[in-house]
User: Fold this.
Amino acid sequence: MRQGWGMTETATAVAFTPQGSPHGFSHTCGPILPNAEAVIVDPERGKSIAPGNGQGELWVRAPSITLGYISNPKETQEMFNIGGQGWMRSGDEAEFEMGKVLVDGVVKEEWLLCIRDRLKELIKVLPPSRPDEIAVDRGTLGIRKPSCTGRIGECTRCPPRGCRPSGRWETR
Assistant:
């Protein structure tokens, strides 16, 4: 298994560990892929942090990155085309770590992307549209329901008695 990093908004991976890379760097997402750029930015000062000099927010740009969110100019302005230069704020706390990867059959040292934490919430939990719906985190079983309001990762509907005879929550 190999690590990588990308988001729905990037459309593809931005970092990926090449096959055959040495062990010992599996905690990283690998080097930044060709045609993509990444920078770590101090979220309080808005200044870039040189590779190996600390953590900050990961900003990326690449031809595959979406231009924004449909019908949501506020989120688009906050996240995309930062500084008018095409940077997208990921909301991930990251840093670069020097490591070894296999490139064209040769093991080379390169800066590898390491995701450390999340600075911005991905899931915005809003009250459910019906009393029998429960907004749940995307790590919980359930499926998206058209009746859920807002940007909820998933929604599950509880049966009238709360549980099936098996004791598992019902998802629809």
